[in-house]
Design a protein that fits this description.
The protein has nine helices and seven strands. With about 260 residues, it is of the alpha/beta class. It has a single domain, classed as 3-Layer(aba) Sandwich (Rossmann fold), CATH 3.40.50. The chain has a seven-stranded parallel sheet, sandwiched between helices.
Length: about 260
Amino acid sequence: MQNLNGKVAIITGGSRGIGRAIALRLAQDGARVVICARGLEGLNQVAGAVTSRGGQALAVAADLRMPSEPARVADTAVKTYGGIDIVVNNAGATRRGDFLQLSDDDWADGFALKFFGAVRLTRAAWPELKKRSGSVLNISGAGGRTPGPEFTIGGSVNAALLSFTKAMADAGILDGIQVNAINPGTIRTGRLQLRLASIVKEQQIDIETAERRFVQESKVTRIGEPEDVAGLVAFVVGSEGRFLQGSLIDLDGGSTKTI
């Protein structure tokens, strides 16, 4: 179903993992995608995958921690494709670890990309989104609703992004812009593979056993795939998901136990 024909979508963190899957899915559904991340090589590989399947993609290397970069990405999208219909704020990884071992720089870096990058890109794209009754979708995380002692930075950043989503959803009602957030749980990405490798080493078990134990101890149905997130993104920003506004959607295999 190609219900995004003619739409222009910016996806941050688009060179790998969840961002890559989102870019491929939105392009499959007809959108022209603008993908940004720090590394141009990875972006070009994703852009190549999009174009090989008949889609349109523009790779923009940008460090969204830098205050001027989000506006440059938005300007590039407008100059290339004539406007912006969709912004998927997906970029951002935060350092895990013992709270007492995390530095001020760790905290500042965690907020710089995932939170302030999303704030600045949303602000830069807002006038174009208003013109086209567009959509903003923030990829936050389950840790924003269920914090943990090893995830103090990530949980705090995600919670801030969820609050930002709710505030901008109200602004979006006035301006005709859809604003929502998705909270992925554990997704099969490079970061997860590192965590599983650590379990393999510590417990002297194989990777299949490590994954099975991880799922059991986390009390979830399974580990998610990037395509699971991409499918939900496509629904939310497509015509069928338009009634969603200010929704904080958990996509986590049951890891969020609270109401």
